[in-house]
Structure formats: C-alpha cells, structure tokens
User: Fold this.
Amino acid sequence: MASDVASRVTVEIDPRRYRDVLGHYPTGVALITAIDESGTPVGMIVGSFTSVSMDPPLIAYLPSKGSFAYSRISTASHFVINVLSAAQENLCRTFASRVDDKWSGVSWHSAPNGAPVLDEAVAWIECSVESVIEAGDHFIVLGRVVELAVVNPATPLLFFQGGYGRFTIGSLVAGAAPELASAIRMADALREDIQSLAEEMKAGCDLFGPVGSDLAYVGSATFPGLKRSSPALGSRTPLLAPLGEQYVCWGTPDEQMKWITRSGDTDPESQALKLERLEIARQRGWSMSRIARDEEIKFYDAVRQYTEEELLPARERVLREQIVAWSQLYEPVDVKEDETYSVHSIVVPIRCGDGDVVMSLRLVGLPDPTSGRDLLAIVDRLKEASALMSTKILSHVGSCS
Ligand SMILES: Cc1cc2nc3c(=O)[nH]c(=O)nc-3n(C[C@H](O)[C@H](O)[C@H](O)COP(=O)(O)O)c2cc1C
Assistant:
C-alpha cells in the first residue's frame, strides 16, 4: 500500500535544476554514427554512452525520442560509437549543431558493417542493435559489440558543467609555477658552486628542487670529457619511492608514507622496510644509487615523455614502473674502505639551516669502480659543500622558499 502511494506521487523537478545538478557529473563525449536508409552517413553527439555488460558484450547510449539524427540512426542494423579526443572539440560542436553538412572535411572509413569510423577518434566500437527500451523522453539503446579498437590513445574530450575540457592526472601533476621559479632562483645562486665542485670532483654535479609532487632538475654542471646521460634541465620526475630519498627522509611520517604508497606499495612488510631505509638515509645524511646503464636510457626517455609530452595516465604508469623497478639500486650499502663500488649517484640534501630540505645536490659520473675510501671522502666533501650552499642560498635569495 505504502509503495503504491509512493509510486503515484510525482515529485516536480525544475528542468533547469535537473540539468544544472546532472551537469556536475562529467562525461566523455562520443559520436554515434551509422549509414541511414538512403545510404548517407549520419552522426549524433552523446554524453550518455556507457559500457553495460562484458558477457555478452553490451553497451548503451540514450538518444532523445525527439532527435532527428537518432530517427535516421535507428534505421540501420549497426552503428559505431566513436570516442572523441580533446582535439575534436570543434567537430563535436558541429555535430551537436543543426548545420546542414556536418561531414564536410571529416575523414572517416567504414567499420566492417559499414558505419563510419572517424580517422581521428580515440577509439571505436561497432555494435548491432540488441534492443531499444523506452525511458521517459529518451530511449535506452542497447548495442551488442561486434568489433572494436583503440586508434589514437590521446586525451579524450570531456563535458562538465556545460563546458568542454580535457583529462589531467591528479596524482602526479607538477605543482604551481612559483615553486619552480623559486627552485630555479636557488639553483642560479649556486651556479658557480656546482661548477667548481664538478671540476674538483671530475664528475657531474646536479641540483634538484621540489615542485608540487615532482622533483625538478634545475641545475647542472660538468667538466670537460665527462660522458654522461642526463635529462634536460627543467625536466621532472615524480617524487615516489625510491627517488628523492634525501627529501623524504627529513619529512613527517605522513609525507614518508605518501612517498611509499605513491610508488604503489601497499604491502606492510615492504613498507616497513622502506621506512627503515629512510631512517638509515636520514642518519647518514646521504644516499647512493648503483649503476644500471640500459635501464637508465629507458628511464630518461620516460622522464622526457612525462615532462615534454601530454601527461597521460599510460605515460605516468611507464615512468612510475621504471622508478619502482630501480628500488634495489637504492638499497643502502654499508661502505667498506677497502672494497669497490659501481656508483651511479650520491645525493646529499641542501637544508634551510637545520630545517626543511630545499634542494638536493647530486654527484654522478664517478669512476667505475670507485673505492670505498674515495666514496666516503666524496660524501664528506659533498656534505661540506651543501652546508656552504645552504648559507649562500640564504644570503643570495633571502629565504629558503
Ligand atoms: C556533450 C553533449 C552530449 C549530448 N548527449 C546527448 C545524449 O546523450 N542524448 C541525446 O539525445 N542528445 C544528446 N546531446 C544532444 C545531441 O547531440 C543533439 O544535439 C540533439 O539531439 C539535437 O539534434 P537532432 O535533433 O538533430 O538529433 C548531447 C549534446 C552534447 C553537446
């Protein structure tokens, strides 16, 4: 009885409010295409495309009962869902409008059953019509997937609050530009210092600064004849375990856990091991990584893509995997004076007085192998240099931020 009454009560919803609230849910944008009865291509923009079932493979979209485009699409046995890329915003606007010739200048080819596939789409899914369900002033069209492919894995077009936009990664996006400007200013104040250190050590000498949740490569010095591969100045790497140990080991427990979980590590045992390593790094005041030549090239390529190309989840994943794969190269080594080591880098923090780490100083390109005795002497020298650099930053830049 109670449910009977409830079903008869119609709650009045203001259409504007309905649109406004629902518009806060972002959607992708797809162009549904087909060849109509007269053999002419037809297209309709929808935000209501969704996957429905894997077994059998079903998808759905919801055309308005009043849509002219849908009245033509519904005459075809097959249709294609074209997932639009952010670069196809203009095409989307054209197809959502009432202009006559929507296909002018659009390059497409036919899917196996004839419906148009846009050459520039992110992906396409060809379907046969499984069923059409009435739902208020719309239909729910269920399609059975018969063929599908990713053509162009670019950023998709998104629709939100009535406007178009694109996807950006939340987790690894570089922080605000002021942070980068500050890191560059500090690196600039230390230009001569890293140059003379590079010459003294006959090695490469680099500076890194934190920018958002990334580390930015902001200073570099070398000496003639040293062969080294390194990323371009200004490139960034995400700050996650094991990279940037000499930042994180001085940070709060919360920052340390974030650094570990960001690497995808959810195993309590391995997390505890990483926390132990951070404690060792903090007590020592320096960190070291060992050489991995082939891996290094792949890493720098991933860094370049992360920094210079469109920030896509797949690129972030490649770089993240690359960094995590390096974990064993960062295992703390108990350096013995009479043994030798293949050292890739030694890093010491540059701290603001006794406080926060504002930059890190990295030495690369040491002879391979390097004796333990030399290594310990180099560490001492780097610590001394970093203390001087910290004073210099304060006097040149005025503050450590
Ligand atoms: C981003 C976006 C999403 C849309 N989603 C849908 C949808 O899911 N269903 C629908 O019927 N119309 C949707 N439309 C509107 C149609 O694309 C089309 O403009 C409308 O149906 C009128 O055109 P027609 O009568 O010529 O088909 C959407 C429009 C835009 C811009």
